[in-house]
Amino acid sequence: MSDEKRTPMVEMRDIKVAFGGVHAVDGVTIDLYEGEVVGLVGGNGAGKSTLMRVLSGAHPANSGQILIDGKPVNIDNTRDAKRLNIETIYQTLALADNIAAPGNVFLGREMTTRLGSLDDGEMEKATREVMGRLNPNFTNFTQPVMSLSGGQRQAVAIARAVHFNARILIMDEPTAALGPAETAQVRDLVKQLKSEGIGIFLISHDIHDVFDLSDRISVMYHGQIVGTVKHDEVTTDDVLSMIILGKTPTDVTSEERAKLH
What we know:
single chain; alpha/beta; four-stranded antiparallel beta sheet; 34% helix; 24% strand
């Protein structure tokens, strides 16, 4: 079914966020469909992180509207976002380094026995089940996550979101500071999430990540959307010109394109 006939999982319409007199996000409209990855790119200060903070409930918009499955919603805080099955995986991952994977998956939402004590067995069982879907090769369920590789730590953060029924996932620089093998692990995780119908907004400075993982790419420049393109209809040079020049590929001259290299 074409996107024109489907209802987006997320629609953000005419979102505006200002800090003092500075318009960090200035009338942005963007959408996301089930099982889709939308790469959100732009230079530092372009507004991409601020836009996603609005969706995650971390920062209110000054104006605009958010629709989930075609219905208007209010997202005033992160609890509202979680109730709408929106989860965020920040670049820092927000893991407790001295705790093992099950404790991190249930951090702040621990399972308890009838006597009120932590139910470590059930939390480990549930973590093994969700990790079996995401990364069957993961076996480090008892050691603190500080001893895990970057790719494994990312898997723990994703498992936490997925276990609590995330339908819409915001991923902030998921492969930052990872080596090639760990980056490949994270890319496999993203592809698995897509196959389960989860919609993903992917914030990344890595143009290769964006092209490898995104179905569409939305480029921000000075708080506005330059354009949204299908990844298989553009080149990396096209997207770079949008990021650096704030112009769509058809508006870039050959001289401007030459200066990008």
